[in-house]
Structure formats: C-alpha cells, structure tokens
Write a structure and sequence with these properties.
With 284 residues, chain A is an alpha/beta fold. Helices cover 39% and strands 21% of the residues of chain A. The N and C termini of chain A lie far apart (53 Å). The model of chain A has no long low-confidence stretch (mean pLDDT 95).
Chain lengths: 284, 284
Amino acid sequence: MSAIDCVDTIAEVRAGLDAARSRGASIGFVPTMGALHEGHLALIREARDRDDVVVVSIFVNPTQFNAAEDLAKYPRDLDRDLALAAEAGADLVFAPQVAEMYPPGATTWVDVEGLTEGLCGAARPGHFRGVCTVVTKLFNIVGPDRAYFGEKDAQQLAVIKRMVRDLDMRLEIVPCPTVRETDGLAMSSRNVRLTPEARAQAPLLYRALTEALVAVENGERDAVRLKAGICGVLADADLARIDYVEVVDAETLQPVVSVDRPVLIAVAVFFGDVRLIDNVTVGV
Amino acid sequence: MSAIDCVDTIAEVRAGLDAARSRGASIGFVPTMGALHEGHLALIREARDRDDVVVVSIFVNPTQFNAAEDLAKYPRDLDRDLALAAEAGADLVFAPQVAEMYPPGATTWVDVEGLTEGLCGAARPGHFRGVCTVVTKLFNIVGPDRAYFGEKDAQQLAVIKRMVRDLDMRLEIVPCPTVRETDGLAMSSRNVRLTPEARAQAPLLYRALTEALVAVENGERDAVRLKAGICGVLADADLARIDYVEVVDAETLQPVVSVDRPVLIAVAVFFGDVRLIDNVTVGV
C-alpha cells in the first residue's frame, strides 16, 4: 500500500475528506499542475505545519493555456510527483482526468475583471479566467480551510485573493515566499525547458529585481527610472526578450508613476518559447 | 424577542448557522428579492418540510437589473416579508444592504455561457451574470445543503443547475412548481404593478400555454405551429406586447423545430412596462 492516497474522482476526494471534516480536522490545500519542484514542496510543508489534513491537486488545467502546444509540452510525471508530495507531507492527492473536471457541456466561468487585464493577463487572454474557474471548482471539491499559493505568481495570488473576497468563499488564502535556486532563479516547472545558455542568463531576472529593490531603499521613487534600470540589467542577457517590466500597486495591480505605496515590481521575459516571470514587493 | 432572526451581515449568518451545521442539521435555503408572495412561501414550506434549518435571503440584487428605474421600482417591505417568512417556517432571514454584498472594488463575476443568451437573456444582457454571481455569493455565505427555486423562472433554474454542476458546488437544487392565482396567472412580485385592465388580460399567458400543452397531447409536434397558436391566444390581449414565444430543449434551452424530446414552452409578454413570464414543460 502506498504511503499516500491518490484519487482521480471528485466523489473519492469528498468521501476521503468528509470523515476528517466531521471530526473537526482542518484541511489545507495546495493546487498544482504537477511537475512539482521545491516551490510546491514548500507550500505542502507549510500546509503540513498549519493544517491537520493536507490535500494536493495535480491537474494540468487546459482552460488556462492559450496555446495547445504549450499545454501539450507541459511536463507530466505523476509517479515522481506522488513520491515528492508524500515526502513533503501530503495526505491525499487529487489527480483527475480532464473529463472529470470539464464534463461535456461545461459553460460556466469565473472571471475577475480589472486585476487580470495587465501584466501576464495582457499576453495571455483568458488565462486567469481559466485559473479562477478551475480554482473555484477545486475549492468546492476539496472544501479547504486554507489554500496555499506561491508569491512567484503574484498576479495569480492577487486575483485569487480578490475572487475569494468577492465571492465570499469561506477559506483563507496563505501566500508563501518564492523559492529560488542558489543563483536566485525562481523555481518554476518551466526552468527545465531552458537551454543551457538561457539557464545561465536567467538569474539576471532576479538580479535586476534586487537592484531595483536596492535603488528604492536608496531613495529612488520614479517608476520609469526603476524600469529603465531593470531593462539595463536584462540587456546583458542577449537571449532574453522582455514581455513586460512593470511597477504596479500591490493590491490593484494598476501601474504607478511613483513608489509612494506598497508596489509590486514584476517582470516577464522570454527565452526562446520559455516564458519566465518573477517579482519583488516593496513596502514604503 | 421576535419569532424569526433577521440579520444583515455575512458574519451573523455564519455565526447563526455554524452551531446547527456542526450538530449535523441540514440547511435549506430560499434566495429571494423580497416582496414575498405565495410562490416564495411555497418554497419556504418545502424547505421547512425537508431541512432542519430554513434560511431565507431578501436582497434586491442591483447587478441583475438592466435599468436603474426597474431596480428603483422593485417593491420593498421588510416587515411584511419577515412576518410572512416566519409564518411559512423560516428560521433565519438574511437581509443585507448593497454594501455588504458588493464592497468597493468588487470585480468578480460568474457567468454561464450558452444557456443565458436566448429567452430572457436576449432582452436582459448581463441579467443572468448578476443572478449567478449573487447566488454563488449567497451559497458561499449560507452553505446550504439544498436550495429551492421556482419553476416559473425556468431559465434561471436551468442556469443555476448548470452553474452548480459546472462549478462542483456541493448542494442540491430543488425545483418547485409554479404557484398560480385561481385564474391561472403565475404569482410574481410584478403582478401588483399591472393596471386593472392588464391584470384582467394577464391570465391569457397561462391559457395560451395550456392550449399548447393540449395541442401537444393531441399530437402536434411542430414548434412553429405551436408558437403560432400561442400568439393567436395572446392576440386577444390587446394591451400585451410579446417579447418572446419559444419552444426550446428543456436542458440546453436551444430552440427546437419539433417536439421530439422534453421541451420548455416559454413566453414573455409586456403589459406597459411590466414584463411577465410563464412557461410549461412537456415530456414526450
């Protein structure tokens, strides 16, 4: 018998959790698309620390991909993921097929307006609608007390928090710090797709962001100059193609002219067809 | 102390229901916009029969109105509604202000595509998005085991059932038969706004629908001829202006050519600025 339960139907998830719920156990939930890395494992460990039962979902959600090719390329290795999730402390993994999550005739969408139009939303129309819809479904299936999301996906985190607030979903969203390689590159399932040359240049994203942080600490408030500084650092990565460099209000995600409130400094950069994102937040 | 609890905050609803939930009581929920009539009371009585705790919401939801004028005209009488709800067996009424349901910056919407484009959706763009969003919120606030909806609002019922299925909401939707005046007119909060002359003509809606039912029983299968028959009956109401007369698939709400499956025969008719709807379903 395996050390971790893995189920693929909604009915099994509910049956597996109802007993725990009725005895008052708290349920922590970590939604993932698999290809687990240290970032995901940190979320699972945090859930293990705080909740009585830890549920991980592994579902490569087709409705949040813009390109069928990107969806097809997404790495999948369930056995490896199960072993890693178990070791990090998960009790139950929900790994459904697409037909279980999107039966024929599914036409309902959850959409957060405003927050989803800039940053990654501009380049990926419909992406956050797919994210919000599948996360709503997963929340309704699992019924967690807390759900854990990484700060690396800063816009996703802001959108999910807004959705939970706006729709009165009864759970707490727990943000967890970005986990990085020793050279600073943010952990991502996409990193394995980088060429060796791109992988060598990719740490410049975080170096550029940390230099912006230092500039703010030294008194810089002008968003245009901060962005220019970041682009200057990224210019050293000759394989990089910048998608965006933005300084936005940390809550509304609207661009700011000056760092006069908590802001998010966020970048998205392509290396070939691999798109990496990273961000830092700045309080004032 | 009043015989019924009436609260206006989400926190009070949850506090009021958590004890019942934790002792295993089932929660029945009847969402309304107030102006309660026998149709609503039948829903409350059905919930009283089937559930341990009965919650009624009274909220004139601004996001489902197309015209500010229609919203302003919607009848409101909380004291009367509370007395009626208590008499029908409600335990708790949730009657929030708009700011409690839609705090500043609320930008999240739940949308059911496809089902919402025809029938009432065609004349009322955004209406069902407003309905789905507020019903999702109310479900998340109340956490019911069952929610009761009238069959008079047939499209709303189909949309809510689809939404619950698509988003894996964990509750049962209980449809309840349309309650009618003795002359056949379907109960509606809008009936009080009819002029005496329009009120005298309004029962023709149901008469037209029942004649269509009889025609199907006698072998008629052609949707065009059924609709023509309904329009013929409604022609006797000289104050009536037809919005739509439709024969649609009972589940997908797509128009049918022939009654070769379960169908919904639905009508919407204006008397002045008062829009009345009614429907019958036909199995085959």
